[in-house]
Design goal:
single chain; about 90 residues; mainly alpha; two-stranded parallel sheet; 2 strands; about 50% helix; about 5% strand
């Protein structure tokens, strides 16, 4: 069983919000850096949907959320209304 963590400084920790797609902090940072646009949108959508709003900004910038907004909306599920104020 994977241990989920809130320590984003530990490169080997699995962020708590990746409960359904576990990867380490290191792996997530690498994927965010190198992923294709559709995969990056999917990952940012997971972060916005599953992470605490204060933790989101450790992974993504407001500018990026605004730029990706049209593609992100379908990935936000129950959290969409919460994030709509950004747009």
């Amino acid at each position: 069983m994977t241990r989920l963590d809130t320590d984003f400084q530990d490169e080997n920790a699995v962020p708590y919000f990746l409960w359904d797609d576990p990867m380490t902090v290191r792996e997530l940072r690498e994927r965010l850096r190198t992923a294709s646009e559709p995969e990056r949108v999917r990952l940012v959508g997971i972060i916005l949907r599953e992470a605490r709003d204060t933790d989101v900004w450790a992974w993504v910038s407001l500018d990026e959320v605004l730029r990706l907004w049209p593609q992100l909306q379908r990935h936000l599920g129950r959290r969409r209304a919460f994030w709509e104020f950004l747009h």
